[in-house]
Amino acid sequence: MGNGADKAQHVTGHDPNVRMLIMGIIALLSIVAFLTLNVRASWAFTLPFRAEKVLAIVFVGIAIATSTVLFQTLTQNRILTPGIMGFDAFFMLLQSIMLLSLGRIAFVQFNPQVKWLFEVVMMSGALCGLYYWLFLRQKRDIAVLVLVGIVLGVLFRSLNSLIGRMIDPVEFDVLQDLMFASFNRIDSTLLTIAGSTMTLVFVWLWRQRFVLDVLQLGDAVAVNLGVNRRAVTLKLIVAIALLVSVSTALVGPVTFFGILVANIAYAICGSYQHRYVIPMAALLAIVALVGGQALLEYVLKFGTSLSIVIEFLGGMFFLWLVIRQGRR
Amino acid sequence: MIAVQAVNKHYGRHAVLKDINFSLAEQGVTALIGPNGAGKSTLLTIMSRLQEADSGVVMLDGVDVHKADNAQLAKKMAILRQDNAINMRLSVYDFVAFGRYPHSQGRLTKEDLTHIDQSLNYLNLTDLKDRYIDELSGGQRQRACIAMVLCQNTQYLLLDEPLNNLDMKHAVDIMRLIRRAADELQKQVVVVLHDINFASCYADRIIAMKDGAIAYDHPPEKLMTQEIMRDLYDIDMSVHSINDKPVGFYHC
Amino acid sequence: MITPWYAWPLALASLLCLMVVSLLVGVADFSWTVSTVHDQQILFISRIPRTLALVLTGMSLAVAGLLMQMLVRNRFVDPGTTGTIESAMLGLLLVALLAPDLSVLNKMLVCSVFAMLGSFVFMGLLRTIPLRSPIMVPLVGIMFGGVISSITLFFAYRFNLLQSLSNWMNGDFSAILRGRYELLWAGAALTLVGYLAANRFTLLGLGRHQAINLGLNYRTVMFLGLLIVSLMSSVTVVTAGVIPFLGLIVPNVISIFLGDNLKKSLPWVAWLGAILVLFCDLLGRLLRYPYEIPIGTVMGVLGSALFIYLLLKRTQNNHG
To answer: Chains contacting B with at least 3 CB pairs below 8 Å?
Structure first.
């Protein structure tokens, strides 16, 4: 690993750097569109307001895209996503438990930064715990791990329901809103924490970029090449957990979106190296989310249906992937 | 009699079976040999109506197997395929008993019970009959599959590599069983084999396939020659006669 | 494992016991002597129908799960992890939107059609998946169900039916009264059909080639199986809502002890299904007395925990 791996793999003759540049320009255009389309109120108000939203959406897009690509490297499977591990449901359960213990008023007024930090710690701990329990204690099929994750998701949702039944209908409404990802109610105070966390994660990622490429080759090969698989895996999990926490804390549960951007990124990137794929996926996510939100909110005026549309498209795409893999 | 007439099959652009023509008598042991990918399994699958040929027809006693009433056909012809992924939790007895389904649809009569016990006996499974098949070893499971097919008591038996997973003793037992089924019970058994010496020892007729076509169709004495072996398997073998049977050896 | 002679009497006795307990538990003032009209009303309009509904639902869902597992040849499926229930839900929502005055029977029939369509699509999907890991099947099923759910969600969101949707999705027996549960008897009839055709369904479980080899009319039996499963699922969804995991857990537990020969195991699956539903409903009624926790929630928690346990236990042999 060194200079040799620095050279890009030319698949079709188009340099991945060029492709990223093009995608970057498209992303920039969608951001501009979001900021400037259909402005009703004064520019002085609209611009900062929308800029904040855009920043949040960009963060979420990057977080989801990166966490999905990393998760797929971890599981060596292009069909899985962190959402499948029940993270979104766990997040909601945390919210419910806090709501139950604090009561509605205290809950809404709780310091968002502390709340978010607490959520991140819990979610990281959860995934690590799950991984340790299932993966390290006994050797297991990754597919089993994933199915257990899915069922855990159901478990959390049921527990959530249970708690919902024990509190007032009034408070149940507050929870209802949290059940679907919404790009409208983003708390700007979270943005700084989100930003700094992601920076930390990306610094680590950048330094590990070649190890990640090796991980793609599989367990046996990686160990044979001298990679400390267990240690790297652990750190990878923490990174994934942090990123997913960022996105769910900012906008709520998003299950299928990652699969779309990760796979499309691999397809159009022109390289299998993480240092190209991750940025490409992130840019794709920005285009989809910012552009999509701009389209729905300012052109078609649909409001908050973006997440449902995206989840639907992502789910269909997943099915298509499975079918395609079956044909081989 | 089974008549295979002008059967062709391809997967995509790859021709797996090319104009196969032959017929099988009602009694005897026919070995089907040939290198991997020659089309043996596909041929058996098509003969047993589990798959359709692209052209051509397979007639059993004068009736096209695809047009015949399936329930009736199951009493005349049985197939044992290679891929027997049994992930069900059935006892060996229950599993073998299903071989009687074409005859009694699950309501077992005394005659059925006799057949089942006999089959279990032939395959040395009587001690294992209450165990679950998903707990058995590969070889034991293979014998259970053979027992089920035997239990079906059909005139024609098509066995695709039945000796897989079996140690030598059991393999020999099965071949002897096949020979007995043909001689004493007047059945016609078609066996796909990899060991040509088993074919030579126990079969009346050997059909050798290569590249989707029938290359040779002779009794063992005529088929077991050095030239034919080299043509089929691309290996130099020496052929000797032991106890009046031709036996082929590969040695380096 | 040969069941001892006292197994069946014991089983029936325990079922009756639970049913009696179920009759007795409730919020209303109720005296066993059934002397007043008030008592009679409670018994005949509310308690008995509810208990019967519980037994019938438990039986139907468990057997539906068992059949589904034979049809799909996979242990970890039930109508809830194959898109069947989600399709029925979609049907229910569309009925609520387009034809809200439809009779309960017609509602159920519409749901069954949707359920069958969903199952067909799922089976078609399965044919394109290599059976590299048996876990792929329920995974794909859940994803498929998720896709259908998102369609349902979309419509619910647009037409403000989210609250109703989430109520239907959560299995609940508190609204069962005489005159509103009778459809469930169809579930009992279908269970009987399933039992009579048990051998055929076991054969299906052996695989397509083996089934055809033994003279089974594969397509017909497959279709029949899907029909039964769809009808059973729709009947329970329309009457009581979604009760997750029941059809998955019960057959697996019985299979561990009695194997997969349907002729032997189907009656036990039906029994355990009824017992489990009765038990969970009682739990829901007693945990936060006098408040009722819907059975869907209780089953969701209990069921997912049990499923994980079964998953880990029954995949141990396949690995390594």
So the answer is: C
What distance in Å separates the CA atoms of residue A18 and residue A24, rounded to the nearest whole number? 10
Question: For chain A, how long is the longest CA-to-CA vector?
Answer: 62
CA B240 to chain centroid, in Å, comes to: 26
Q: What gap in Å lies between CA B217 and CA B3, rounded to an integer?
A: 15
Three-state DSSP state, C160: coil
pLDDT tens series, chain B, 252 aa: 999 999 999 988 888 999 999 999 999 999 999 888 888 999 999 998 888 899 999 999 999 998 888 888 889 999 998 876 677 888 899 899 988 988 888 788 999 999 999 999 988 899 999 998 888 888 888 899 999 999 999 999 999 999 988 889 989 999 999 999 899 889 999 999 988 899 999 999 999 998 889 999 999 989 888 888 888 888 888 888 888 888 888 877
Measured between CB atoms, which of A134, A318, A325 is closest to C143?
A: A318
Q: Specify the pTM.
A: 0.77
Between strands B188-192 and B245-249, the pairing is unpaired
Inter-chain contact B94–C261, Cβ cutoff 8 Å?
Answer: yes
The residues near C125 (Cβ < 8 Å, ≥ 6 apart) are A319, A322, A323, C140, C144
Q: Token pair of B2, please?
A: 């089974």
Give chain C's radius of gyration (CA, Å): 20
B48 and C207 within 8 Å at the Cβ level: the answer is no
Helix A87-102 to helix A229-251 angle, to the nearest 10 degrees? 60
Q: How far apart (Å, rounded) are the C-alpha atoms in residues A269 and A280?
A: 7
How many CA within 13 A on the CB side of residue A38? Answer: 10
Query: What number of other Cβ atoms are within 10 A of residue C219's Cβ?
Result: 10
CB spacing of C212 vs B91 below 8 angstroms = no
Look at the block and give the residue holding tokens 């900012």.
Answer: A250
Which residues, 6 or more positions from C249, have their beta carbon under 8 angstroms from its beta carbon? C276, C303, C306, C307, C310
